[in-house]
């Protein structure tokens, strides 16, 4: 098989690398990809993820068996609809189904209609009304931009001042453009967070192993929200019973609800969950693989990823098997991220770690940083503690001048 991946980050690097392991796959192209992917034999295609017409032409000319969409923007722009209209196989939700991520309000309504446990909420388009509601409810409280904001449109406000500042940034200062014209204000839920992803084909749900992401920029879950500073799997503090409950009460009703809604979902459904005293509840849904969770979860998959997706595209039952090994991944970010950060930094090399590249560019054959999150370094071992030790020993040895990383990825699993 010849396959095409849409996207350029660490998530797409992990997907493409896993697909190349399959004996059934001869070539994996990535559009646009990044120079770091070439180390793993992934072929880069210089076509933007926004240029659907050129991507369709490439897939036709190169007789691509099927295409996999990594990021959310092309999904919300209808790339699946466009490929299908051209008679091409592609894995991911269509534009209507991708609204489960594209609109917090859509997702909340889906949960409400299908009795899926989540935080109580209100939706606002009026800034003054939102402020009045927040003052009435008090803190802690959660403020979310309705639309996409690259993982940064959520503020868990522990004080009233923080909540009002978040509303000002989103609705008055338009920090996230139109994504913040509408906000969802939610009750604060306490408990252990975890990520549960699943392959979905209409009403059929095939869950993956769980992971835990670290969203805050600094150790001890301090600082601003980011796209994710690292992750690990398994998550021993999340019991099998909690995961099974989440599959039965959240994932399966969500898939069934999307059909009832006349927006059937095919692709990767990501549920960001929290284990509360009253069972698991939904924080958010995404319509694609999470980043950095993908880089942690896929190495534990022992069955053939290409075969799984081929089976789903052909309405057949896939087989999923998983390793008991632990994986810990740490993101190396440019100093200043998620605010202003320097670009053009030399990209360090690591011994004995698996590296997934993200915000990098080719500078005359050398890798240079171009984004906030530059790479994720991952280690695999028999336990989380051993994987953690391995990844941090390598990071300490490397020259990470101009970068920062969290020193506590996986620490909660040690408690």
General description of the model:
This protein is α+β, with helices and mostly antiparallel strands. The protein has four domains: 2-96, Rossmann fold (3-Layer(aba) Sandwich), CATH 3.40.50.20; 126-181, ATP-grasp fold, A domain (Dna Ligase, domain 1, 2-Layer Sandwich); 192-313, D-amino Acid Aminotransferase, Chain A, domain 1 (2-Layer Sandwich); 326-414, Glycinamide Ribonucleotide Synthetase, Chain A, domain 4. Helices cover 29% and strands 28% of the residues. The protein is built from twelve helices and 23 strands. It has helices at residues 10-20, 52-61, 72-76, 79-85, 99-102, 104-113, 127-137, 160-172, 240-260, 293-297, 305-313, 384-397; strands spanning 2-7, 27-32, 43-45, 66-69, 90-91, 121-124, 141-145, 154-157, 183-187, 192-201, 204-207, 212-213, 216-218, 222-225, 230-233, 266-276, 279-286, 326-334, 354-357, 360-363, 366-369, 373-381, 403-404. Strands 12, 15, 18, 19, 22 and 23 form a six-stranded antiparallel β-sheet that branches. Strands 3-2-1-4-5 form a five-stranded parallel β-sheet, with helices on both faces. Helix 7 (127-137) runs antiparallel to helix 8. The N and C termini lie far apart (45 Å). The relative contact order is 0.13. The mean pLDDT is 95. Pathway: Purine metabolism; IMP biosynthesis via de novo pathway; N(1)-(5-phospho-D-ribosyl)glycinamide from 5-phospho-alpha-D-ribose 1-diphosphate: step 2/2. GO terms for molecular function: phosphoribosylamine-glycine ligase activity. Belongs to the GARS family.
């Amino acid at each position: 098989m010849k396959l095409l991946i849409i996207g350029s980050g660490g998530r797409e690097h992990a997907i493409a690398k896993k697909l190349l392991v399959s004996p059934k796959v001869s070539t994996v192209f990535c559009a646009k990809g990044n120079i770091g992917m070439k180390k793993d034999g992934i072929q880069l295609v210089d076509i933007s993820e926004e240029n659907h017409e050129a991507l369709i032409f490439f897939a036709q000319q190169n007789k691509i068996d099927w295409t996999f969409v990594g990021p959310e923007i092309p999904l919300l722009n209808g790339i699946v609809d466009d490929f299908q209209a051209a008679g091409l196989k592609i894995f991911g939700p269509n534009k209507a189904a991708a609204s489960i991520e594209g609109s917090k309000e859509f997702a909340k309504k889906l949960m409400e209609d299908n009795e899926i446990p989540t935080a109580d909420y209100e939706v606002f388009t009026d800034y003054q009304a939102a402020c009045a509601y927040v003052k009435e409810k008090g803190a802690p409280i959660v403020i979310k931009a309705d639309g996409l904001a690259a993982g940064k449109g959520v503020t868990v406000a522990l004080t009233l001042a923080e909540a009002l500042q978040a509303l000002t940034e989103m609705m008055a200062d338009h920090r996230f453009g139109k994504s913040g014209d509408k906000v969802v204000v939610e009750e604060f839920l306490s408990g252990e967070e975890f990520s549960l992803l699943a392959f979905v084909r209409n009403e059929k749900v095939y869950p993956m192993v769980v992971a835990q992401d670290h969203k805050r920029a600094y150790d001890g879950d301090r600082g601003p929200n980011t796209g994710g500073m690292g992750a690990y799997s398994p998550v021993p503090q999340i019991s099998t019973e909690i995961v099974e409950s989440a599959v039965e009460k959240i994932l399966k009703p969500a898939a069934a609800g999307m059909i009832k809604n006349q927006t059937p979902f095919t692709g990767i459904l990501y549920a960001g969950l929290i284990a509360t005293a009253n069972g698991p509840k939904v924080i958010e849904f995404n319509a694609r693989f999470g980043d950095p969770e993908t880089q942690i979860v896929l190495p534990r998959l022992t069955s053939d990823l290409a075969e799984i997706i081929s089976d789903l595209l052909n309405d057949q039952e896939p087989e999923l098997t998983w390793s008991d090994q632990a994986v810990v991944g740490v993101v190396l970010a440019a100093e200043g991220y998620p605010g202003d950060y320097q670009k053009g930094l030399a990209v360090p090399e690591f011994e004995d770690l698996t590296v997934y590249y993200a915000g990098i560019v080719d500078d005359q054959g050398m890798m240079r940083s171009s984004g906030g999150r530059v790479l994720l370094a991952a280690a695999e071992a028999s336990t989380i503690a051993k994987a953690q030790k391995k990844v941090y020993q390598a990071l300490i040895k490397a020259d990470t001048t101009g970068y920062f990383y969290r020193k506590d990825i996986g620490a909660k699993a040690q408690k």
